[in-house]
Amino acid sequence: MKKISIIIPVREINDYIREAIPHHLRLDYPDYEILIFPDEPCSEVFPKTRIIPSGKTGPAEKRDMALTYASGEIIAFIDDDAYPRADWLKNAVRHFDDPSVGAVGGPAVTAENDGVLRQASGKVYESFLCSGGYTYRYVPGKLMDAEDLPSVNLLVRKDVFAQVGGYDSSFYPGEDTKLCLDIIKVAGKRIVYDPDVLVYHHRRKLFREHLKQSGNYALHRGYFAKVLPDTSRKLVYFVPSMFVLGLIAGPLLSLLFPPLWYLYLTVLLLYFILLVASTACFKDIRVWLLSIAGVFLTHVGYGIGFVRGLLSRELIR
What we know:
This protein is of the alpha/beta class. 48% of the residues lie in helices and 15% in strands. The chain has helices spanning 15-25, 59-64, 66-69, 88-93, 116-126, 128-131, 158-163, 175-185, 208-227, 229-232, 235-256, 260-278, 285-311; strands at 4-9, 32-37, 49-51, 74-78, 82-84, 101-105, 108-110, 144-146, 153-157, 190-193, 199-201. The strands form 2 sheets. Strands 3-2-1-4-9-6-10-8 form an 8-stranded mixed β-sheet. 42% of the residues are buried.
């Protein structure tokens, strides 16, 4: 039986942690520990949990502290605003019986108790029009090998994590992309995606918080397209920028060549139909309407952010 160390980086003990701990304590797995890394010492105590002050540092550096403090053979990374399903560890650990597997991850599904604005944010990410072939990060997909999984739900062999030098904090918030690439390229290990290795994740609220997050992802993905081409120089990441270019160039070109108006408006109509279909939510019409606007604005923000990252000489933090 492999011991697992659950690592949770956090600025301070918050309501998310207080909500998550009971879920961690109900995990259907016999041998695990919970390590929380806040900036400063605190007086709160949780069962089966060690709280280790890290000083004021970023999430990547906090996760790297697992190499010093974790006693488990497997390190399970999860964010403070996420909590696991009871079979999370049990479903993940079976893959590590295969020595070729260096890491295992799964979906981070929108938390069931999230409000309308957070549910709509989740619906945006779940839309194939927004996430393309990467919707499996937000809703359960199929069992497969993966090349880039987020650290909100990622389990890694401790020796492999040490071999690749942990997270590269200079790539925050895309340090998980760099880690996954190192696991595959440097350590020569596989990363398995299992839809049953599931956690629930509280989304950022539409619109401001969501767009700030997705824009930051875009900025770094654009930069990664230059420096980490193996996983980031892909057409799917360029599409939002092409969409923004089309939005701007379409009317300008149509003024010069009026027949192009028909093509431009037809493309917009098809986009709108796909937008409505990809965000369909019959349980709550409010979530549906908000997510329609959310996908459009995410496309625009991501497209602009990606170009900014692509043109950056160095990573902007």
